[in-house]
Amino acid sequence: MADTLEFNEIYQEVKGSMNDGRLRLSRQGVIFKNSKTGKVDNIQASELAEGVWRRVALGHGLKLLTKNGHVYKYDGFRESEFDKLSDFFKAHYCLELAEKDLCVKGWNWGTVRFGGQLLSFDIGEQPVFEIPLSNVSQCTTGKNEVTLEFHQNDDAEVSLMEVRFYVPPTQEDGVDPVEAFAQNVLSKADVIQATGDAICIFRELQCLTPRGRYDIRIYPTFLHLHGKTFDYKIPYTTVLRLFLLPHKDQRQMFFVISLDPPIKQGQTRYHFLILLFSKDEDISLTLNMNEEEVEKRFEGRLTKNMSGSLYEMVSRVMKALVNRKITVPGNFQGHSGAQCITCSYKASSGLLYPLERGFIYVHKPPVHIRFDEISFVNFARGTTTTRSFDFEIETKQGTQYTFSSIEREEYGKLFDFVNAKKLNIKNRGLKEGMKQSYDEYADSDEDQHDAYLERMKEEGKIREENANDSSDGSGEETDESFNPGEEDDDVAEEFDSNASASSSSGDGDSDRDDKKPAKKAKIVKDRKPRKKQPESKKGKDPNAPKRPMSAYMLWLNASREKIKSDHPGISITDLSKKAGELWKAMSKEKKEEWDRKAEDARRDYEKAMKEYSKADSHRGERSKKKKKKQEKVVKGKGDKKGTTSKSASSKSPAKGMSDSFKSKEFVSSDESSSAESKKEDSEDEGAASPPPSSEDSASGSD
């Protein structure tokens, strides 16, 4: 027969709730480890008094009774496992595993039996229900009635809070059955009564959780926190772990008490009691016991008179009374030499302590995570800056904890610690690479090829060279077409001719009238080319040679179809990423081959660009001449319209002469269209002549 039996999915009934865990039976005894809290119940084989097998809601259950009256219940067994357990109990514990089923008649009249810390309500020889007396928080009596009140169960959606028993009167004199019932309950119930004097008192201790300053009164069986608003009574049996943690500033100490079940303040539950001490605070402590009692009870762990640092005295007294070890940080040291890491959890900043068997975060909210409940950890880049990273922990139950804003200098130390503890790192491959080149943490993205970034760089080079080409070629054209000096000269000559024409008509006031529109025309001439100037740069000649592609783009165009065939259905984004990975992994010799092709394409482009620039210069000269001729034609038309309107509107002696004499400038409406068409034809042939001046018209009239 095997020396041990192990059962993984077993539920222990504790204070009305079912806690999942692992049960192990060995020659030495029975061990149950709670998966949620990590608490271990160890029952020695010599302490076992009785074992009962029965059917329960979750299949079959095992009830164990010890010689000192404690009861342990474990559910979740299969019916087929009874024979195996029964043989094991006979061989190693010398106990007969009895089968007892619960009574399901539904009667409410029966007999109450007190056995150890268990109240059993039986009908005949079968139990109907059982109540662990440690769940009782209060017991009150009335006439023929006893009321039991229970502690609230935080893990259950519905909790049983009260049970009333009717106790019929008896004929026995001097014995009150109600009081006898109540005394049996109170002797085993978890009813805290602050009777007698405290062993010692610590005054005005700073408490972070729950917040405030409290007097701590140490009693033999419980801890009493007395504050200005709230009082808490904490039985030592609810203390799960003790932690003594140094603050990062090396001047303060945290003393953390883990509680299960937690203390309650309204709807708030406090699973941790956190005290903050200064290392400079000293105290002299005298226990309210004589030396013999101190020696007998604490066996040298405490003395009647003690002195030292306040945090040392509190932790020493708590360790002796609770009989638990105090957990301190192990060999971990951060970048600054501290045994903790500054980080943020949820909305608050705090300290993360890597311990020998877990992590603990203080202080708001406090979190304790054991290594054996961690599924994996993950190192992630910070969301806001590259100078920090996030440390993520996911438990086997699926709960995720994210500690953010950790300085990147702490990465190496934390990674080595996690690796040494053999925790599963989700992104191990990536982070090992980061560890080797940790100094390049902030620039790690640049190590990988980015196809989009390469394309943007190429487009930027193209825009720069196009801007240079336009400044060399088209830029000169726009500079010549827009020459303020020449335009001023043309405008001045135009207005001089208008002035002479008006003076021949004999109207002196018209000179001032002609000069006013001259200023307006000059402003218009200055503005028009400025609006057209950027338009000439924006235009791109489709006949211009195309820019050569880089070596990577040449390779990508040649390999795109092959990548698509190797990865059917791949998206454009994934194709770019895959191409970047292939290009990065390509050997230097193959890259040089594509570099040579890119260099050949660049030389061909430069040669074609030279030929294009020569042809473009010839086209530019022809366009300049054409634009100048068009400007002169427009000026001539403006002169004719101005002189005809002035001669018609002015009242001068020349009005009578205009009926009999017609100068060359005068044309009829019928002849204007034919004259304009002739001018257009002459412009196309390149033989257009400037419009006649006022002197020519005068000589013609003569």
From TrEMBL:
GO process annotations (BP): DNA repair; DNA replication; regulation of chromatin organization
Residue spans binding DNA? 545-613
Which Pfam families does the record match to this protein?
Answer: HMG_box, PH1_SSRP1-like, POB3_N, Rttp106-like_middle, SSrecog, SSRP1_C
Indicate, by first and last residue, each region the UniProt record lists as having compositional bias (Low complexity).
497-507, 644-660
**HMG box domain: which residues?**
545-613
Compositionally biased spans, kind Acidic residues: 474-496
**Which residues, by range, are in coiled-coil regions?**
none
A Gene Ontology molecular function term of the record: histone binding
Name the residue ranges with Basic and acidic residues bias. Answer: 532-544, 609-620, 631-642
User: What are the alphabetically sorted keywords of the record?
Assistant: Chromosome, DNA damage, DNA repair, DNA replication, DNA-binding, Nucleus, RNA-binding, Transcription, Transcription regulation
Q: Where is the composition biased (Basic residues)?
A: 517-531, 621-630
GO CC terms of this entry:
FACT complex; nucleolus
Instruction: List the subcellular locations.
Output: Nucleus, Nucleolus; Nucleus; Chromosome
Is RNA-binding set as a keyword in this record?
Answer: yes
Function field: Component of the FACT complex, a general chromatin factor that acts to reorganize nucleosomes. The FACT complex is involved in multiple processes that require DNA as a template such as mRNA elongation, DNA replication and DNA repair. During transcription elongation the FACT complex acts as a histone chaperone that both destabilizes and restores nucleosomal structure.
The entry's family comment says: Belongs to the SSRP1 family.
The molecule here is called FACT complex subunit SSRP1
Give the species.
Illadopsis cleaveri
Taxonomic path? Eukaryota, Metazoa, Chordata, Craniata, Vertebrata
